[in-house]
Amino acid sequence: MNETPPIRPGMIVGILGGGQLGRMLALAAAEMGLSCHVYCPDPKSPAFAVAAARTVAPYEDEAALAAFAGAVDVVTFEFENVPAETLAFLAGRAPVFPGARSLTIAQDRLFEKRLMEAEGIPTAPFAEVAKQADIYSAIARAGRPAILKTRRLGYDGKGQAVIRAGDDPVAAWRAIGEVPAILEAYVAFEREVSVVLARGRDGGIRAFDITENVHENGILATSTVPAWITPALADEALAIAGTIAVALDHVGVLAVEMFVLPEGAPRRLLVNEIAPRVHNSGHWTSDACLCSQFEQHIRAVAGWPLADPARHSDATMTNLIGDAVDAWPALAAEPGARLHLYGKAETRPGRKMGHVNRIAPRSDG
Ligand code: AMP
């Protein structure tokens, strides 16, 4: 049980990171009568446009961090690559949710995998690759095809190289920049799903419905609810995600991405990755649930009761990546579609510019 008093309307939530997730968190907080102070080194951050206050400073700037901690009532983060030292520094000055354990584990793929091992949660076979010479023993363990992934700072398929039969493993090691990595067996999955849940300060957990995700070039393309998954597998996925949330003593939204293997596989669910924050595969909740993942996260970190995450509609979320955003006039006119644009000044290939939620009456339940 956490003893920090709840955040009351009128108080200020500090958000580390100023991307679209921070922007949508700040919008949700505003609807709850809270205001947000966004801290981000990039002056062009999309969250600044909707925040009551901003700090533009590096994450290592202790004077700026101390002033930020003094100006807010609680601190959270919208991405997991905030340095752990930054969070530790702030935690000495203000309540911080989620805590250091969620951040440090989720920002390192090896720590993540070790947590799963410790909790008895299945993942793809993997091995640590700390130096070039390790790659051969790792392949012997994980087999081919395999994916070499940087331990830290990878996202949207970046920092990854596939090693197929006949490929030179050293070329993969060079391609990822010769940095500490893990090698993972390539999983012939049937589909990908994720669980987006929230854990409150009191330890209570509420999960959104399981989402089915399609990635293209390592980047999320669509998320659909309901997912094509049996009730038994859905229950198993929810139990796995809950176990992880408890193991991290997490407070806030947590996303757990999983592979679903074909029927007949010894274990049908493997955890791929966790995110200790609101997640792209939960964006459909804004328009298909009684409460969005953004409001739920703010509620959790603010010490409010978690909201009912019930889903009232079916939904498909489609990311608008790069110049796909140019279709906005047609999307804005499309019946049943809710368009969300991030206000980014510059369109670049691979950059997430917005998303559209296509909503239909609920087909199940
Ligand atoms: P990640 O950055 O680890 O979430 O990887 C991005 C996407 O790449 C995943 O959602 C999958 O579509 C694909 N991927 C990652 N790891 C594997 C794997 N071990 N086997 C098959 N596909 C993978």
pLDDT averaged over residues: 96
Uncertain stretches: none
Regarding quaternary structure, what we see is single chain
Bound molecules: adenosine monophosphate
**Helicity range:** 25-40%
**Which descriptor suits the 3D outline?**
globular
Q: What is the tally of helical segments?
A: 11
Structure, explained:
By secondary structure, this protein is of the alpha+beta class. 28% of the residues lie in helices and 27% in strands. The strands form three sheets. Strands 9, 10, 11, 12, 13, 14, 15, 16 and 17 form a nine-stranded antiparallel β-sheet that branches. Helix 1 (20-31) crosses helix 10. The longest helix is centred in the middle third of the chain and has 17 residues, at 231-247. The mean pLDDT is 96. It binds adenosine monophosphate.
Task: Please render the helix and strand layout as text.
Blueprint: E1 12-16, H1 20-31, E2 35-39, E3 53-55, H2 62-71, E4 74-77, H3 84-91, H4 100-106, H5 109-119, E5 126-129, H6 134-142, E6 146-150, E7 160-163, H7 169-175, E8 181-185, E9 191-199, E10 205-207, E11 211-216, E12 219-225, H8 231-247, E13 252-260, E14 269-275, H9 285-288, H10 293-302, E15 313-321, H11 328-333, E16 337-341, E17 352-361
Parallel strand pairs: 1-2, 1-4, 2-3
Antiparallel strand pairs: 5-8, 6-7, 6-8, 9-10, 9-11, 9-13, 11-12, 12-15, 13-14, 15-17, 16-17
Helix pairs in contact: 1-10
Bound molecules: adenosine monophosphate.
